[in-house]
Design brief:
The complex is a heterotrimer. By secondary structure, chain A is mainly α. Chain A has helices spanning 16-19, 21-54, 84-117, 122-136, 140-154, 207-237, 244-262, 284-311, 314-322, 327-357, 369-381, 384-413, and strands spanning 177-179, 182-185, 187-190, 196-199, 203-206, 264-267, 270-272, 275-277, 280-283. In chain A, the strands form four sheets. Chain A has a three-stranded antiparallel β-sheet with strand order 1-2-9. Chain A has a two-stranded antiparallel ribbon with strand order 3-6. In chain A, helix 3 runs antiparallel to helix 4 (122-136), helix 8 packs across helix 10 (327-357) and helix 11 (369-381) packs antiparallel against helix 12 (384-413). The two termini of chain A are 28 Å apart. Chain B is α/β, with parallel strands linked by helices. Chain B folds into two domains: 17-122 and 224-329, Periplasmic binding protein-like II (D-Maltodextrin-Binding Protein, domain 2, 3-Layer(aba) Sandwich); 125-220, Periplasmic binding protein-like II (D-Maltodextrin-Binding Protein, domain 2, 3-Layer(aba) Sandwich), CATH 3.40.190. In chain B, 39% of the residues lie in helices and 17% in strands. Chain B has helices at 2-13, 24-31, 57-70, 86-91, 106-110, 153-164, 177-186, 196-204, 233-252, 259-264, 270-276, 282-286, 292-300, 303-310; strands spanning 34-39, 47-48, 54-55, 76-81, 97-98, 114-116, 121-123, 125-130, 144-149, 169-174, 191-195, 212-214, 222-224, 227-229. Chain C is mainly α. Chain C has helices spanning 2-8, 28-36, 40-65, 75-85, 95-106, 115-127, 129-132, 141-157, 162-181, 187-216, 231-257, 262-277, 280-294, 303-329, 332-340, 345-375, 387-396, 405-433, and strands at 159-160, 220-221. In chain C, helix 6 (115-127) runs antiparallel to helix 8, helix 11 packs across helix 14 (303-329) and helix 16 runs antiparallel to helix 18. The longest helix of chain C has 31 residues, at 345-375. In chain C, 39% of the residues are buried. Classes of the chains: A mainly alpha, B alpha/beta, C mainly alpha. The A-B interface holds A 53-56, 68-72, 80, 145, 148-149, 152-153, 156-160, 180-181, 272-275, 277, 284-285, 362-363, 365, 367, 371, 375-376, 378-380, 382, 384 and B 21, 83-84, 87-88, 91, 108, 111-113, 132-133, 141-145, 150-152, 155-156, 158-160, 163, 169-175, 179, 182-183, 186-190, 230.
């Protein structure tokens, strides 16, 4: 704590543990450690005692029992005879899905709104200010519930599509059905599918998808090589060869070929029975949660973006206009890249907030990890301790992973100073 | 400062520490209040009014127990619980009894360590659909979208029913009855399923109740009743017999208006005399006053009166007695003898 | 000079041209509109689109909002009134607000005691006076601010007046032991002894003493159980208590995180990252279903206190990060200056570092408070009657079953007013507190 070194003393006395700066730090740390351990020991002994009184034994065996309930929104196969563990996994994937979608949308909306708030158009900047203040100052739970209510009340029910003179009709050449149960969009189908690879017994990965990704990766790599070559030619001769058609070609021609080989076609949704069938069903709960979380977080991101842009000195803008750059290009090439360094650290915490706020999904019945593991599983099995602790650990792992990735990115783009 | 508020609040609010394992009766008497767990709001069963006064069918059970134990039907603290928190609240001793539409199942009784003290409402899970769908049986619901309240046994029943009949469905899980109602009315789900009582209560509040039908299938047994912790049988007995006293009172024709006269002096009916405390010492056996049953009945009337004022046909909920009629009238309400 | 110039060069004007009016297109409302709304085709399109959007919104919403249903006592009555008016888009049912707004504000708090939470709120503003309106209130008010938590707790929960007094005595014990033992012992040791003594006082003696005193001198107001708290009052109580309690914990955590002591640092970082890594709702689950399992058998205190404890822990992790930001913003010279004056660690923190760091952190603290205040709506998920929880309960009343938007609009509006005014105030404060050395 102080930088002074005390003169060395010959013999060790007990009081030196407190008064001698060399030992004091260690003394305090050991005391702190003992207190900490005692506290934890106390908690654990209480827990053990209480559980014994209740006649419960902490065990995770219940995770292997059949869950018994159904989940509508799922990314992997699941039915009510699968285990609680698999139900939790379905929930976890749902959490990750909505968190990912939300983060992407919130960033896009947030950047646009942040830039528009600084627009010299009076009406637009005021409108954006109203949006930002409205969303920032009302609890996110209310926005989630309101988004759900708006979707339910304002969109037509599937039964409105029925009959000859239906009140509602499908959009985009009869390919998309927007209902108050969600949006049905065409799904990609392969008539000569290569099948699936099972990963453990958790989920299957489609070989078709892997093939498409591989072809795309190769295409992008070749395209990048062509660009490098063009750069080299430009360096050497001063003339840049026209390469855009080649670059597009190496990406899209193989892809199109692969799709034809696999027999790619779209499956359209159509009304049958009570619901639309076929197509991909984006459920209302997902859309409402996604919308509310991204709009709410976007309001905060917009403020961060605005602060980031305002932090860039005006000289940069003036220099850019002196070079003859138009305002939109100035923003894109000069201001935003510099502002990014200011924006990224708060952006990380906004992403974390969004992920954590996705736990409010139960308010609209979206079955995320809170809804499955810490919701229905907890209710059906009565295992509060195990489910809540497991759920907290999972959230902790997600949060740490997000901050690790984003901090890595941040250290990459950070301005390297002396 | 940190401790100031915390400890200040602790002292001021009163750290209600106390052993919860046994002797709930003594705790309740010492406290002078019964802590009764109810739902956060379910029309007809428990809901606070504009003055914060709780009312409803489940609430009436709480009041009757409070009246039997403490002699005062208003000596109840109502603790609102959700589907998730109700069992913890009971097992941790935060509440003395739970009266929250809880279905009596083996695992709750045995594995979760609770004692169900009887059934105050025999319910069953049903389906409600709009009339315009033209559905007349639950067997025609293949492929339907079903609104369902999470955290209840209805979820499991629904899954079982559709699996048994080889049908598909799309569940729309919903947190509260109010939201389920909104989604159902807007057509976001074709079917709403919950306890038949809840369906009737919900339908009654629609703008046009006649446009909706409740399907004839009842797919599960839902005996709803109050429950207490395992391990305190004396307290369980008190709750159980208070409930039976209400049922027996209806059978014997004791109402909140005539209970005063009937208990003033011993009459010709020995069982009635024993129950009302004018003969024998049943109250003493339970550890209560001799007039415990009189208090319980005067709190909100006998079982039939409670039913009629809260959920009966005269109320907006409009439920008929059905299974909940006295056994003498073909129902299941049957109180063991008071002897 | 100009004269000679004028004579030699005949074509130069001798007089200035009269100043001309600016072109009509750049002044007045028209000019304003041109520069601010219609500069370039892109801006024009944006302006027109957003103008149309606003008009459309007003067209759809206004007829619904303006609905003479203030007197209705049930949803059916509303439907009758609106049906008689024959409106195309229906109308709002404001009767539910006029009947239940008090409940949404105060929950089940007895109406004859409404003055108590209102008075606590007013006193809160007075107590924050030294910070918020420094130029208006005398400095002595700071003593009142220190007493405020006890006064507020007593006002809200009621009971005998001896409880808060006895609780304050514990702090007096800490103060006295600090004062007298510091001369003999290491200050940290003196503090620890003081705290131990105070804890002994609170745990073992305070209850009996308060009981005895109130038996002798029964002064007090009617006790009100925390279960009767609800609505916005509950949100504010949880929010304010959590923030007040989390401030000292947050400062300690922030200092611990910057400490050289490896173990202390690890514990603080672990705590902060754990709390910040999990959603508040899981902490509330812990409060509602697990806290009783963690505490000694038989301990059982009410859900509001459990929630306040968990929200405090939650807020203190965020507060620690805010304070850490304030500490990081201080120039290093301040630390070195303190060292050069020969101050020890705690002295320099108390006299030099913290006053400045906290001042810088005030906007962060306010925004943490706004966040916590908004997050108190989550307690509705664990069955407490915050405004959203109450709105569910109100809809369970058969008279109002089916009312939806009106309640949410009212609750959202009140939240907006609270949070917006706080954030505006913090921006004002930020500007005022800037001492301009940067």
């Amino acid at each position: 704590m102080t930088t002074l070194t005390d003169p060395p003393s010959e013999s060790f006395r007990l009081s030196m543990l407190i008064y001698d700066t060399r030992y004091r730090a260690i003394t305090f740390q050991i005391i702190a450690l003992i207190c900490f351990l005692l506290f934890f020991g106390w908690l654990i002994s209480n827990t053990a005692q209480n559980l014994a009184d209740l006649g419960k034994e902490p065990s995770f065996g219940f995770l292997m029992e059949p869950a018994g309930y159904d989940i509508n929104q799922r990314l992997i196969d699941y039915n009510n005879q699968d285990s609680h563990l698999r139900a939790a996994f379905v929930g976890l994937l749902n959490t990750l899905l909505v968190a990912f979608l939300g983060c992407v949308t919130a960033t896009v909306v947030g950047v646009i709104v942040g830039v528009l708030r600084l627009s010299n158009n009076w009406l637009i900047s005021r409108l954006m200010a109203v949006y930002v203040e409205m969303f920032r100052n009302v609890p996110v739970l209310m926005w989630i519930v309101l988004c759900m209510a708006i979707l339910i009340e304002s969109l037509p029910a599937p039964r409105a599509f029925r009959g000859d003179d239906a009140e509602a009709s499908m959009k985009l050449f009869d390919t998309v059905a927007i209902t108050n149960r969600g949006v049905y969009i065409p799904e990609p189908l392969f008539s000569r599918s290569l099948g699936d690879i099972p990963v453990g017994n958790l989920f299957n990965i489609s070989i078709d998808l892997i093939a498409i990704l591989i072809v795309l990766a190769i295409g992008f790599y070749v395209s990048h090589r062509i660009k490098l070559k063009a750069d080299a030619t430009q360096e050497a001769t001063g003339v840049r060869p026209r390469t855009w058609y080649m670059r597009l070609g190496v990406i899209f021609v193989p892809l199109a070929a692969l799709l034809v080989i696999l027999g790619f076609h779209l499956g359209y949704p159509e009304l049958s029975g009570f619901n639309f069938s076929g197509g991909t069903h984006l459920r209302n709960s997902l859309i409402a949660l996604w919308l509310a979380l991204s709009l709410y977080t976007a309001a905060f991101i917009a403020e961060n973006v605005r602060a980031g842009i305002l932090a860039i000195s005006k000289g940069q803008t003036e220099a850019a206009s002196a070079l003859g750059l138009r305002p939109s290009i100035t923003m894109r090439l000069v201001i935003l890249p510099q502002a990014l360094r200011v924006i990224i650290p708060p952006l990380i915490s906004q992403y974390l907030n969004l992920t954590k706020n996705s736990s409010l999904a139960i308010a609209v019945g979206y079955m995320d990890i809170t809804g499955t593991l810490m919701g229905i599983t907890l209710n059906q099995t009565g295992r509060e301790l195990e489910t809540v602790l497991l759920g907290m650990l999972i959230y902790l792992a997600i949060s740490l992973a997000i901050s690790a990735v984003m901090n890595f990115y941040n250290s990459r783009v950070k301005l390297v100073e002396r | 400062m940190k401790k100031s508020v915390f400890l200040g609040a602790l002292t001021v609010a009163g750290l209600a520490a106390g052993a919860s394992a046994a002797a709930t009766l003594d705790d309740v008497k010492a406290r002078g209040k019964l802590n009764c767990g109810v739902s956060t709001g379910l029309a007809g069963f428990s809901a606070p009014d504009a003055n914060g006064e709780w009312g409803g069918f489940d609430v009436a059970v709480c009041r009757a127990v409070a009246a039997a134990v403490l002699g005062d039907p208003s000596a109840v603290e109502f603790v609102s619980t959700t589907g998730k928190t109700r069992f913890t609240a009971l097992s941790s001793g935060e509440i003395d009894m739970l009266a929250r539409n809880t279905t009596w199942t083996l695992s709750r009784d045995v594995d979760l360590k609770f004692t169900f003290t009887g059934v105050n409402y025999y319910d069953g899970q049903g389906f409600m659909v709009p009339k315009e769908l033209g559905v007349s049986s639950a067997k025609e619901l293949d492929g339907a979208t079903v609104c369902i309240q999470t955290g209840t046994t209805t979820e499991l029943n629904l899954a079982d029913y559709f699996r048994k009949n080889g049908m598909n469905y799309e569940p729309v899980p919903i947190e509260t009855n109010a939201e389920a109602q909104q989604q159902y009315l807007a057509g976001a789900c074709d079917v709403y399923t919950t306890d038949a009582s809840g369906l009737a209560a919900t339908r009654a509040t629609f703008e046009t109740p006649a446009d909706h039908v409740i399907l004839p299938e009842i797919i599960s047994k839902e005996p709803l009743g109050p429950l207490v912790r395992h391990g305190d049988d004396e307290w369980g007995d008190i709750v159980r017999w208070t409930l039976y006293a209400l049922v027996a009172a209806e059978e014997m024709g004791i109402t909140s208006t005539n209970v005063g006269d009937l208990s003033a002096a011993a009459g010709d009916n020995p069982e009635m005399n024993r129950m009302l405390g004018t003969e024998g010492n049943l109250g003493e056996m339970l550890g209560l006053e001799a007039n415990w049953a009189v208090n319980a009945i005067s709190a909100g009337g006998n079982y039939g009166e409670i039913f009629a004022t809260n959920i009966g046909e005269e109320t907006p909920i409009g439920l008929s007695r059905g299974l909940n009629a006295q056994w003498t009238e073909g129902g299941l309400m049957y109180a063991p003898p008071f002897r | 000079m100009s004269d000679t110039h004028a004579e030699t060069v005949s074509y130069v004007r001798e007089t200035m041209l009269p100043q001309q009016e600016p072109p009509a297109s750049t002044v007045g409302p028209l000019g304003w509109a041109k520069t601010n709304l219609f500069s370039g085709w892109f801006n024009t399109v944006l302006s027109v689109l957003s103008g149309l959007f606003i008009l459309w919104l007003a067209y759809r919403l206004l007829p619904w909002i303006i609905s003479p249903t203030w007197q209705a006592t049930s949803l059916n009555e509303c439907r009758e009134i609106i049906g008689a008016l024959n409106k195309p888009h229906g109308g709002a049912c404001w009767g539910v607000i006029s009947e239940r707004w008090k409940q949404l504000m105060f929950g089940f708090y007895p109406p004859e005691h409404y003055w108590r939470p209102v008075l606590s709120l007013i006193l809160l503003l007075v107590a924050l006076g030294p910070l918020l309106f420094r130029h208006l209130v005398p400095a002595k008010v700071i003593y009142f601010s220190m007493l405020y938590p006890f006064i507020a707790a007593w006002l809200l929960w009621g009971g005998t007046i001896w409880n808060p007094i006895v609780a304050i005595l514990g702090f007096v014990i800490i103060g006295l032991s600090l004062k007298f033992l510091t001369s003999v012992l290491n200050p940290a040791l003196a503090l620890i002894i003081g705290v131990v003594l105070a804890v002994i006082w609170w745990v073992a003696l305070a209850g009996t003493v308060a009981g005895g005193l109130s038996a002798v001198l029964p002064i007090g107001i009617e006790a009100i159980a925390s279960r009767q708290f609800g609505g916005f009052m509950l949100s504010i109580t949880i929010g304010v208590t959590a923030i007040l309690c989390s401030l000292p914990i947050g400062i300690l955590l922030a200092l611990g995180r910057q400490s050289d002591l490896l173990l202390v640092k690890a514990m603080c970082v672990g705590f902060i990252e754990f709390i910040r890594g999990v959603p508040l709702i899981t902490l509330l689950f812990v409060a509602s279903v697990l806290l009783n399992i963690f505490l000694p058998p038989g301990t059982n205190f009410d859900i509001i206190l459990r929630v306040i404890i968990m929200v405090t822990l939650f807020a203190s992790a965020y507060m620690a990060e805010v304070v850490r930001g304030g500490l990081a913003a201080l120039p290093k010279g301040q630390y070195e200056g303190a060292d050069s004056l020969g101050l020890d660690y705690w002295q320099s923190q108390r006299l030099i570092i913290m006053p400045q760091a906290l001042k810088i952190s005030i906007p962060g603290i306010v925004s943490t408070f706004i966040g916590v205040f908004k997050d108190t709506t989550l307690v509705s998920i664990i069955s407490m009657f915050d405004p959203i929880g109450l709105s569910n309960a109100i809809r369970a009343d058969t008279a109002w079953n089916g009312v939806y938007w009106e309640l949410f609009i009212f609750i959202g509006l009140v939240f907006f007013i609270f949070c917006f005014s706080m954030s505006r105030y913090s921006m004002y404060l930020e500007r005022r507190l800037q001492t301009g050395h940067r």
